[in-house]
């Protein structure tokens, strides 16, 4: 092999190494989806929490702290064994939208919690957070699965009619119809005023938002490309079977 041939081979080798390093660097810059996020509004003042931190404690310890819990102001996380392997589960505070936006890039699955006993009073705030999650570009495009878990189902009044929405009995209809209907109505209202990209006060664009559902139709959860599952339970009673099933299926 002459000098020119060996020189060409050396340049080719260097080029391959450079391309490989660029590929590795690009890959390392991407967020790895390796966490289950517990998302929902936070309790403030007289407004009770939806039970996100309580759910994390129940998953980790199979019981609740003796003296109760305070609303979280920071991310709580724990490793939970699912399918024989450790899975990172993160409880995300509901009052810091920018924090949620960043953590969504790590989500392999999302548990969105609502307080089914107070859904009528807090459906708007619940829907605002849910809209932020569902319209995050990568969440929709990668079809990240989500469980909408209606906590405190044991506290629902035996008869909670809402004629305007066609809800006859909230306890009987539960998450399957009533909570779903409340959220769909609020998401439709929020969607009407949403935009794909907005300018922040500093002049920088926020992450790209996707349009939720179909533009010419009233919003329905069936329009979302992600796999959405609705389920009811009670964290404080230890009734979290739907959550455990969702985690097992998501991390399989």
Automatic annotation (TrEMBL):
It is a single-pass membrane protein. Pfam families: SRPRB. SUPFAM superfamilies: P-loop containing nucleoside triphosphate hydrolases (SSF52540). The keyword Cell inner membrane does not apply. The keyword GTP-binding applies. Keywords: Endoplasmic reticulum, GTP-binding, Membrane, Nucleotide-binding, Receptor, Transmembrane, Transmembrane helix. GO terms for molecular function: GTP binding; GTPase activity. One of its GO terms (cellular component) is endoplasmic reticulum membrane. Its main location: endoplasmic reticulum. GO terms for biological process: Golgi to plasma membrane protein transport; intracellular protein transport; protein localization to Golgi apparatus. It is found in: Endoplasmic reticulum membrane. Belongs to the SRP receptor beta subunit family. This is Signal recognition particle receptor subunit beta. It comes from Rhodosorus marinus.
